[in-house]
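Model: You mentioned two targets. I'll fold them one after the other.
Researcher: Yes, keep them separate.
Model: Target one:
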Amino acid sequence: MALMPVEEALALLLAAAGPIGSENVPLEEAAGRVLAAPVIARRTTPGADVSAMDGYALRAADAATVPATLRLIGESAAGRPFAGTVEPGTTVRLFTGAVVPDGADAIVIQEDTRRDGDLVTMNEAPTPGRHIRPAGGDFASGETLLETGHKLRARDLALVAAADVAEVSVARRPRVALLSTGDELVRPGTGARAHQVIVSNIYSIAALARAAGAEVTDLGVLPDEMAATQAGMRAALDGGFDVLVTTGGASVGDHDLVAPALTAQGVTLAVHKIALRPGKPLMFGRSRRTQVLGLPGNPVSAHVCATLFLLPLLKKLQGLDVPAATELQPAILGSDVKANEQRMDFMRAEIVGREGGLPVVRPLPVQDSSMLRNLARADVLLVRRPHAPPAKAGEPCEILPLED
């Protein structure tokens, strides 16, 4: 089977995916969720003309020539507006956030005044409208504030709350199941023997998926035995999950049972080998409502493949815009790199400085895909296109940032 380019594989994976539905959540649970419907303001903000400063409300014409002394007739504070009207020759004490009383069209800040009992002398001529926040200056009732597909940030929640919206419609969280395979795998903390391997990739993949908005269920580790593998796959596919992610058993060895087990459950696998390093053995398909993504068992390869394929899939399931190809960022090489062969290479690299506003990146000295320490040490993936020629330090390059 010919190797499939990364971009083509991603396009095929995303072509079968779409938004999975929505739910209403209270605002306090909406951070990080993706809007499934626009947010429409239910009130005008500010709801009236309000003061931006502490001072005195007046008719600008009454203090066109200063000093001008006016009679104080009351005060307006935030939440306690003045009930009367500012008539000629009068003024109202007001505080920041207070409603500007009827009849007033200007404010003189308190530093430019002198008060003697009920008389207030204005020492600065006011400008109509100055220091007044007009009604609707932020937004008006009925205005669309946030569009469908927007991922809610902390500052967005303040806007939504101010619009008198207490509940929003958001994309349902994708339900992701994780299944690992391999007789050699044991859980951390159980006292692994020399011939055993501590399963680690499920923890990084679960963390990536949760950060992308998914609910994750770890379904455990399956042995390298066909009946058990088929039973595990069948239970996962019948479990109501949107995505099943398997790790391990995705190659073509005698003990790689994931592909035949999935096929036996009616899953048609679209891809098996990707022109990618690390992570050539990778599969995906669909069974009824469940997208299936088969990642390599190697934990570094699994993490890179999850970054490249699982995260875009989870975005699309939540209605987020996903580019047709991996979004790469420009950078500068911090050391020489060799020519690349036919597979797209995602090298673990560190940011060692900045030049011309771009990060300077240097690949880590050991790129073996079993080196978890180097994966943890890396800041970015340095991307080398298929058949890329040698490149020197100081030349432009492309990077894919890793998660924070």
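Model: Target two:
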Amino acid sequence: MIEHIERLLKSRIGLEAESVGRTVIERAVRQRMAALGQQNLEGYWTTLGGSPREQQALVEAVVVPETWFFRYPESFNALASLAQERHTQLHGGRPLRLISLPCSSGEEPYSIAMTLLDAGFSAEQFQIEALDVSDKVLEQARKGLYGRNSFRGDALAFRDHFFHEQESGGFLLDERVRTCVRLRTGNLLDPSLFAGEPSYDFIFCRNLLIYFDRPTQVRVLELLKRQLQEGGTLFIGPAEASLASQNGLQALGRQQTFAFRMAPAQPTISVPTRVPASRTRTATVIPTRTIQPSRPRPASRTLSAAAPQAQTADIWSEIANLANAGRTDEARQRTEQHLQQNGPSAAAYYWLGLLCDAAGQGDQACAYYRKAIYLEPQHREALTHLAAHLEAQGDQTGAQRLYRRAQNPEVGERD
């Protein structure tokens, strides 16, 4: 039955089930069955088949998006200045229109509102919409009560300014910020989602496209482009920059902002369906700690037994030994088991990418590398291997961008 669910996710909503692993799918199915009060897998399958909303809810359970206030702070710094420029261009003729989707529990759209308020905008000068398929996370967003996990890093002055610490625990967002955001249920894959809606000056859609297959990525990206005002800005995730640059969008060139606008000359969209035949792989995987960013194409893959934390080194060594012994299926099962027990990690997704490469599954490998970069934007090995794939597909610009990031962590996303 799980195989049927995987095929449905692929055919209906474009989710690459293989890119997250069967154990993750199974865990998500159990979570959704519990949320619906269903005990029988066949019954859930019936519900799933007839409910696009439940299909998207299952996607959300699979993806398990992680969010916090002012994630990618450079993007919000850029938004403040870009919004001022846009407001001047409009001569105050209408409010700025912004949207965050999917908005999850509200940290991103509320960060947008705080940014604009701090930049001197009044609440009447902008309109923020926030969409998500999950009523549960939207209800949490409406309450505006957040725990410490929603606040990361040391730059927390905004918490003192816009939040009220509660005696019962958590921090309550000020009403003046909450009233700036219109929260509503919406499915980005619903073709009628924006029917009758005016376009937007700023769209935030970050770290979602990496979970879809390429045709769905392009379809969703085209939808977002149609909803973008002329001269408007699209903010995406770090691992999605290459996809945007290949499909008619141009980076603003502001470091670490991942902000794009329509390119002056829009190229024809190309949807590669397979890795070029000239790319060959060897069945033997050689463990090494050395990365060669200048390698022209991923003719063979090198597996690293290194792990970011000492306590997990033995796991990756075990997986390397299995892979080098030709027991790649066992290596993959062990990695997926680690994901199930410990949650998402850049190291695990990087290893799944390497194992897919060893099996000749290039598209799936790219999806895993993007996930690793999503969790750890400067993951050198994932950046290098993904760059090699892009180069083999003819995307020299995207490849060189990733190579630069891999060689110099201070470079960031300049292009």
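Researcher: Noted. Anything on target two?
Model: Residues 266-311 have pLDDT under 50 and may be disordered.
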